[in-house]
Amino acid sequence: MAISLSPFSAIAIRLTSIPATSAPSIMVKRIVPLLILALAGLAAGFWFGHRNQAPANAPDAAVAQLLATRLPDLAGNEQAISQWRGNTLVINFWAPWCGPCVEEMPDLQALSIEFKGKNVQFVGIGIDTAPNMIAFEQKVKVDYPLLVAGYAGTDLARALGNKAGALPYTVVVDPQGRLYYQKLGRITSDEVRSALKPAR
């Protein structure tokens, strides 16, 4: 059976093979190249991992599916996303158990207030159960609609380019129904404002 070693494991093995009587300069000459290789490997892994998680382009059919979707709100009333068509839509896929989702929620709430009356509508699509979302909303108040998609909501997010199925995931759809912005991971206020510049 072959065992794949990490760069740090390789460094540890090489260090144990250096004689105790070796001069410090010899140790430095041996260790520095290994450290450089290890850091390069970690950087490459980080880059490839994030590159593979970059959102894919969403087909028009997926956006049409989003706009045709009907989901219950926290009161149990079914809401059609198409009712907000004609506005720029900021659709945020989130869950109460998702740390970055919880961290960005106050920013999204503040932005919802900032863009009120500017033909911008924020909508949160929760990947969880209604009771869990209600319990969360009682602690973190938001004034924009929170819709309950359950865990099946990940299929909708995947269709919109979130191939990793990770959270949070935010998309922006223009008034004509064209998706023009996607962000996988926690979104900042400045990123939202930049994405909404055409709506100002």
Automatic annotation (TrEMBL):
The record's listing under Pfam families reads: Redoxin
Q: What is the protein's given name?
A: Thiol:disulfide interchange protein TlpA
Keyword presence, Phosphoprotein: no
GO terms under biological process: cytochrome complex assembly
Chief location bin: other
Tell me where in or outside the cell this protein is found: Cell envelope
MF GO annotations: disulfide oxidoreductase activity
Q: Which UniProt keywords apply?
A: Cytochrome c-type biogenesis, Disulfide bond, Membrane, Redox-active center, Transmembrane, Transmembrane helix
Q: Which InterPro entries match?
A: Redoxin, Thioredoxin-like_sf, Thioredoxin_CS, Thioredoxin_domain, Thioredoxin_ResA/DsbE_sf
Q: Which gene encodes it?
A: tlpA
